[in-house]
Amino acid sequence: MSEHTVSAYDEELTAMAGRIAEMGGLAEKAFADAVSALVSQDLELARATIKSDERLDALYHDVEAKLIELIVRRQPMGQDLREITAATRIANDLERVGDLAKNVAKRVIAIDSDLKSKKLAIGVEHMTELALSQLKQVLDAYARKDAEAARRVQEADAEVDAIYTSIFRELLTYMMEDPRVITQCVHLLFCAKNIERIGDHATNIAENVYYMVTGERLPEDRAKVDETGAV
Amino acid sequence: MTDTTLTPPPGNANAPAPRRIRSILELDPLTKRRNAAEARFKLYGIVAISIGLFFLVALLWAILSNGLGAFSQTFIKVDVPLIQSQIDDAEKSVVKTSKYRAIIDEAFAKELAGVNIATDMSDKDLQKLFSSGAAATVRDFALANPDRIGTTVTFDLIASSRVDGYLKGRVEREDLAEDKNLDAAHLDLADQMAEAGILEKRFNWSFITGTDASDSRPEQAGIGASMIGSLFMMLVVLFLSLPIGVAASIYLEEFAPQNKFTDLIEVNISNLAAVPSIVFGILGLAVFIQFMHLPQSAPLVGGLVLTLMTLPTIIISTRASLKAVPPSIRDAALGVGASKMQSIFHHVLPLAMPGILTGTIIGLAQALGETAPLLLIGMVGFIASNFPDGVAAGFFAPNSAMPAQIYEWAKRADPAFYERAWGGIIVLLVFLMTMNIIAIILRRRFERRW
Amino acid sequence: MNNMPNFEQANTMTESKISANKVQVYYGDTHAIKDVDIEIQPRSVTAFIGPSGCGKSTFLRTLNRMNDTIDICRVEGSIKIDGEDIYDPKVDPVQLRAKVGMVFQKPNPFPKSIYDNIAYGPRIHGLARNKAELDEIVASSLQKAGLWEEVKNRLDEPGTGMSGGQQQRLCIARAIAVSPEVILMDEPCSALDPIATAKVEELIDELRENFTIVIVTHSMQQAARVSQRTAFFHLGILVEEGLTEDIFTNPKDKRTQDYITGRFG
Q1: 20 to 30 A from A213, CA-CA: which of A8, B303, B399, C27?
Q2: Minimal CA–CA distance to A219: which of A204, A207, A205?
Q3: Contact B337/C178, CB-based, under 8 Å?
Q4: Rounded to whole angstroms, how far apart are CA atoms A146 and A132?
Q5: Which residues contact B145 (CB under 8 A, 6 or more apart)?
């Protein structure tokens, strides 16, 4: 893509992309740390994660303000217009990811004991890996403006949903077996839900990236494999 | 504020040269030189204008001092009894005017006696105080007013040009030493008559309304006839050159295609404006008089020749005015659905009118003052002695133009004619100024602000 | 962008008002407009955008044969209004221009009174039988142009004595007075301040109910605000044409994209 005649415009767009990338990095780290704290019951890490969300929020407000400035100053058209509106939504999604990670970290402190079963831990970690990889890939797709990569991220969400459904079932069985673990399991359930939401946010970002690059919407009827409603 | 210098950091070969910071309250040498040059230029301008003004003033002074005299004339008041028998006698004789002279002489002698002016000059000598046309004046009156015969009529008879000149200071006693008409005694008599009130200078209407007179009667010469001649010529020029010139310009400006032929026409029109006017006279002689057999010396022919001369001026100024109308007006008219003709006549022409009028008046003023083209068609040589009767005669009867008349007078030896030549110039200038004022008024009326 | 409710999409299916096919325009030997095909829809605003010298004004002027006034200009191809070829030898351009009016970049009211400015067109086309009818036409044109309240008490004052924005609206009223079907506007707001521009844009929005409007503009934001369809011209070629929101959010041609995002030159 050739450059804008007014070079300051290009600089502003690059700076904006940089900030989004920074937000992405912070969100990824918060997510990974929160789950790691959950699996290893590391309360220190959990507290640190909660604190780091402040920085992400501040960055989000900064990005919002700069985006509005861009609209006022540059009256963007075409590709630039889609880029800027997409960036607004992506920043919003990343901020939500950060909040969800913070939520998980809070629950770590609330659980404050070992995870009941190894299987559960593996399940949670596996889901996290997938969701993290989704997040990484979609942020990469955003940086490279790669619509195809964004589409693949959207399709990968099915697997995350599947794992969530199985964890849901497992926790239910534990709760039915032993009422004393209900508190722990409910917290765990919420954490799993949060991780699944993070996957959904990554999918949202993917849809926005796709729209930004091509100007068209991804087909709405992606496979929704969250069958928890049927349990 | 003092001058400060910025010193570059030491050892920095690429630093910019130190700049002196000057106060704007101090003029630098370049500005001073420029201001001096501009002041000198303004001075040159003023000097140039002063020279121009000086000559203008000199011109006006010369004209007025020499010419105003023509507007006044010395008259002698005589009570002449019109006796039927004397008049009948006079009519019967062959040289009628001599009899009338005798009547005047008698009356004059009585009058002198009546105001106690003693003289020992003979009647014949006394006659010389009067213009040679005085007798004709009395005769014309008697014939025109038979009902006044039998009464005594007070006539204001024109004095001879020598007496007139004496009263105007043109003629000194020494000049008359060689004169065979008058001598010092006449002048003394004149002084006495002036004191008695029967000799006085009055405004000379017949200068403006009268016709030219023969060499011996400069006091009766007037510019009236040639004014009529000029007027008819100007009418011809106006009614021919304006429509033709404007139509030609509109065609050239709006309709003519851009090719070599049109360029050729344009170049030739500009050149025609510079052709010496006498060439048009030759053209007029060949075409209008020899080929078309129009009457010689007629204002119609003079008008036609001057039309040819004025056309290039009008075409050039009209084209310039048409070009000056902004194309946005034409576009606007076309955009509303006007045809090209409609846009020209309803919008472009009214806006160009001030310029066209100016050009026309300039052209007319030039034509008014031209003598050379009239040379060859006869209007210079011919001097009318009576007014044309009727409008048709006005165009076709031989006449002359004002500049021609002035030239004629200037040629004659008598200083009285010389005075009248200057007077004629004043009348010509008044004409020109009137035309210019009309042009300014018309231009104001048509002026629009875009 | 104008909020077009979906049922207006059907408009593009009705017959075009102006139909241009393989239009070429030559200035002497220079091929200024090449192979332009475009359909202009009735009762809507179509915007022509493009960099300077791309031929949008030239093409606009072919629509009412204003190019006829330029000797070296030659037009080939067919341009049909309501199915009739306007370059047919039987057509009198003067009559055509009563049907297709024009408003120019610099407001150019006649140096006459406001009344005479508006009345001139109807007079020469014989649209009014008497003074009363003429008064009616003048009043209604000024009302449609949104100028009536401002000038109704000073119809005798010169048209040139108003502000730029008012003069331009006067020119629009003048164009409307002859009841054209199409109004061509060549950068009508480029000489006006933002408030006057907004008033003219509001006027254009109202006018499109009754007239077909084609507007050439340098401002993409104006094209986006005012038009339903936009055509992008570049170097004498019609690069892309379509619904305004499509052109400005997701153009198909890279040249269009580059132009609207300011990546040209």
Answers
A1: A8
A2: A207
A3: yes
A4: 18
A5: none
| Degrees to nearest 5, angle at CA B242 with C158 and B288 | 175
CATH number listed for the domain at residues C16-109+183-260: 3.40.50.300
* pTM score of the predicted model: 0.76
CA–CA distance, B233 with B228 (Å, rounded to integer): 9
| Contact between A188 and A171 (Cβ < 8 Å) | yes
Phi, psi of A146 (to 5 degrees): -105, 105
CA distance B308 to chain C (A): 32
List CB contacts (< 8 A) between C110 and chain B.
Answer: 329, 332-333, 347
Angle, vertex CA A127, rays to CA A123 and CA A130, nearest 5: 140
Q: Which two tokens stand for residue A153?
A: 């991220």
Name, of A44-53, B371-380, B441-450, C65-74, the range with top average pLDDT: A44-53
DSSP H helices, A75-181, are 78-111, 118-144, 147-177
* Domain covering B224-446 in this structure, CATH number: 1.10.3720.10
CA distances from B231 to B294, B356, B368, B384, C9 (A): 19, 21, 9, 14, 77
Residue type present at position B270: S
**Beta strands C18-27; C73-81: pairing state:** antiparallel
SS3 B180: coil
* Domain architecture of chain A: domains with CATH: 7-230 (1.20.58.220)
Per-window interface: C 34-73 vs B, CB < 8 A: 64, 66, 69, 71
Q: What is the pLDDT of residues C163-180, one digit of tens each?
A: 989 999 999 999 999 999
AA letter at B224: G
Contacts of C238 (CB under 8 A, 6+ apart): C36, C37, C38, C231, C232
Look up the ipTM and state it.
0.86
C245 at the A interface (CB within 8 A)? no
State whether A78 and C261 contact (CB < 8 Å): yes
Residue C211, both tokens: 């007239």
Domain limits, chain C: 16-109+183-260
Beta-carbon separation of B337 and C125 below 8 A: yes
In contact, B361 and B439? CB cutoff 8 Å: yes
Supply the DSSP string of B382-424, one letter for each residue: ---SSPPPHHHHHHHS----HHHHHHHHHHSS-HHHHHHHHHH
User: What is the Cα–Cα distance from A87 to A109, expressed in whole angstroms?
Assistant: 34
Cα(B228)–Cα(B387) distance, integer angstroms: 8
Q: How far is A206 from A211, CA to CA, in rounded Å?
A: 9
Convert the pLDDT of each residue in B176-201 to its tens digit: 666 666 667 777 777 777 777 777 77
Check: CB of residue B425 under 8 Å from CB of residue B63. yes
What are the residues of chain A with a beta carbon less than 8 Å away from any beta carbon of chain C?
1-6, 9, 75-82, 215-216
The sign of the dihedral angle between the CA atoms of B106, B111, B113, B117 is: negative
Sign, Cα dihedral of C193, C199, C205, C211: negative
